[in-house]
């Protein structure tokens, strides 16, 4: 774009500006069509949360029932359990995993052996690419009361075998810490990349002033990560109620269902197994509304406090 | 910190470095050992694994576990289904994502902002499980491969990564020069942009590819016909729901020891299964690790 072209450009009409660029619209068309069908039409279809969906009458012909589906959810015993379980699981997850990624990045960045750092990074990223099913399969295998390696160790030390997956009070810890095991390396990438932007002059100046390495990491590197941390924190809070279906569902069994039934797994069972489609959609909709409120609130608060916000 | 090296290290710095080294080594072992354990167990005598004798290297080397996996018809069928779904899925993903990313990277494209907004909205608002299910059903995709590859043809995050790449790597002067020579957008994209897009194609290929290979949620929702299940659904049956169809059945008169061995073999087959299901990712991982990381960095730049 030349400087001369700028004032002229503003006066041109939309059609003039599109001239010669119509093919760019064609570039976008397949994506727009697919996204409209599989993303926007379902958004419009959310109205079945306020209807009594009957397969015969279809989405648009089923009778309106107002807020009945929502009332039914909040009057059922499941509302309290699933909302509590979801909140506890995702807040625990967020609070435990968020600092781990930051600390790992800070440690890796200050490791003196560059070669060794590369090895650690390659290994800690690897679990990120393991599928949820395999990850959960490994957990169940390792923790199995009969043949699991963990219980073999416990038994050889003279203890009793523990049925880890059957103990409700252990389920959340297993879920969260296996998540950290799998994700810490990958989540640290973004912080590690950001740390490359710290100017060495800060460190040199601090060394001259007699700061130790630990002090420098704490007072130079860590504050440098603040904007990135804020951004990720806001985004994470926005999805606090949409914590992954796949893993919770994969780790569920009859013994731990009391703590492992979260909103999304309940939505699946009500909708796809019980075929109570309107009821399921209502619960799902409640879930997304709460997510949006959380996102907007956290964004507002962090914006006020630190000046960092998404928009 | 590079240039700070010539400065003298104080004693507290030496302590700090040692502490960091030890902590990182512990983390390294915590992550690496379970992975290593799966590998050595998959090659070991099942009874030794169950008895806790396998610690640092395979004990009683055997390929029985792998044999069992290869004999399981459902697993092999799932494996090839997944290969097909991943290949078709990634092709569609790239065919849809790359042109969109390029078009939206062009500042002189007047629809740039509205279309970007159109996609950003979908990151925060969605119809949810059942309304999406109904649309997939009504478009006739249930129980077909297309249910797994079409609805997610364009991942918004991936599209933004692509757009950022094009904005920073294809100078607008290049387009202007080509325009003066009478080269239109389409020709420019196919003859100049695409040949320069090796890195971003690799990144998107991997992101989408791993996504397709590892997902089971779409299949759980949309594919009930078992002959069409992807590998992850079969794995779920075996690893999580414990329904293993062994090729051997235990006769009533067989000895208890043999019974136990088969039980253990059943467990051991799971280790082999984990390895086999990870092979495609394992093969490409060492080559592409740097691309994966590059993708995160491109994506983290505000577009």
- Taken as a percent bin, the fraction of beta residues of chain B is under 5%
| Bulk shape of chain B | globular
Strand content of chain A: under 5%
| Uncertain stretches of chain B | 244-248
CATH architecture of the largest domain in chain B: Orthogonal Bundle
Order of helices and strands of chain A: HHHEHEHHHHHHHHHHHHH
**Total DSSP E strands of chain A:** 2
The multimeric state of the shown protein is heterodimer
CATH topology of the domain at 75-131 and 160-306 in chain A: MetI-like fold
- Helical content of chain B stands at over 70%
**Biggest interface pair, residues each?**
A-B, 98 and 102 residues
Helix content of chain A: over 70%
Distance between the termini of chain B: 29 Å
Shape of chain A: globular
CATH topology group of the largest domain in chain B: MetI-like fold
Question: Please, could you describe this protein's structure?
Answer:
The longest helix of chain A has 34 residues, at 77-110. With 311 residues, chain A is an all-alpha fold. Chain A contains 17 helices and 2 strands. Chain A is globular. Chain A has a domain at 75-131 and 160-306: Orthogonal Bundle (MetI-like fold). Chain A has helices spanning 5-11, 14-18, 22-45, 58-61, 68-75, 77-110, 114-125, 132-143, 149-156, 168-195, 200-208, 213-224, 226-238, 245-250, 257-260, 263-273, 277-306, and strands spanning 51-52, 63-64. A two-stranded antiparallel sheet of chain A has the order 1-2. Chain B has 2 domains: 2-70 and 245-300, no CATH class; 73-228, MetI-like fold (Orthogonal Bundle). In chain B, 71% of the residues lie in helices and 0% in strands. Chain B has helices at residues 11-42, 46-50, 64-71, 73-105, 112-124, 129-138, 146-149, 156-169, 172-180, 185-193, 198-214, 217-222, 231-240, 256-300. In chain B, 39% of the residues are buried. The model of chain B is unreliable at 244-248 (pLDDT under 50). Chains A and B meet through helix 2, helix 3, helix 6, helix 7 and helix 8 of A and helix 1, helix 4, helix 5, helix 6 and helix 9 of B.
